[in-house]
Amino acid sequence: MTLKLGVNIDHVATLRRARQAVYPDPLLAAELCLCVGADYIVIHVRNDDRHMTEKDLARLCKAYRKYMHLECNFSEKMQKMALKYKPYSVCIVPETPGEVTTTGGLKFTPKNFDRIRQMTEALQKKGILVSLFIDPSADSVRAAAKCGADIVELCTRDYSEATTKKQRAKLLGDLALASLLAKELGMEVHAGHGLDYENVLPVADLCGISCMNIGFSIISRAVLAGLPNAVCAMKELL
């Protein structure tokens, strides 16, 4: 089965921000990715607007709404923004000020659980599919199901950063079990975080996973090989 590929283009905006310029343009990057086979365009709008901004989301949703997958935290601000522009799907992720990148899945504390469920219901009422970014554990999968999520995205950070074959095999097993449980509970399964051209295949081969969301490794290769070539190379692997 050919897996779907969501290309995260956040770091196109990171490069733009480095010089406070108007280019490279994320809209053009999205067009190039879709033209060569990407199934979704993924962007993460953070509270600090350090790469993608609300303006970017507005432009991208206007042009490519049915391909847009927004990552954001579960604040009221982000909920209002998602409801305003109505991307095809929203992945609710944790966010910590000052972090270099997302450090793990959502923590389902009683307070967080109620807020996440509330946001999930609000988005779904407007026809937006909701994904929850979770650690690959049975407890997190069950919590996501109780929140009413349409999709779970399994965090592959620990797998991607594993330093031994034994450790990687154990973490791959955790991803496999979480994927099967999520499917049994009626949710679509995605995976992402830290995946690259060298480590993606074992995850892609897991039963139940339908989409891989990958950004940094594709944009990094694009610097040397060009964005269409980088996307095509990943799509061919999948």
List the helices and strands and how they pair.
Layout: E1 4-8, H1 10-18, H2 26-35, E2 40-44, H3 54-64, E3 68-72, H4 76-85, E4 89-92, H5 110-125, E5 129-134, H6 138-147, E6 151-155, H7 157-161, H8 165-184, E7 188-192, H9 200-204, E8 209-214, H10 216-225, H11 227-237
Helix pairs in contact: 6-8, 10-11
Instruction: Please give the order of strands in the largest beta sheet.
Output: 1-2-3-4-5-6-7-8
- The total beta strand count reads 8
**For the report, how would you describe the main beta sheet?**
8 strands, parallel, barrel
Class of secondary structure makeup: alpha/beta
Q: Report the sheet-strand fraction.
A: 15-25%
Features:
alpha/beta; 49% helix; eight-stranded parallel β-barrel; 238 residues; 11 helices; single chain; 8 strands
What does this entry look like structurally?
This protein has 238 residues and is α/β, with parallel strands linked by helices. Helices cover 49% and strands 17% of the residues. It has helices spanning 10-18, 26-35, 54-64, 76-85, 110-125, 138-147, 157-161, 165-184, 200-204, 216-225, 227-237, and strands spanning 4-8, 40-44, 68-72, 89-92, 129-134, 151-155, 188-192, 209-214. It has an 8-stranded parallel barrel, surrounded by 8 helices. Strand 7, helix 9 (200-204) and strand 8 (209-214) form a beta-alpha-beta unit. The longest helix is centred in the last third of the chain and has 20 residues, at 165-184. It is globular. 42% of the residues are buried. The model has no long low-confidence stretch (mean pLDDT 97).
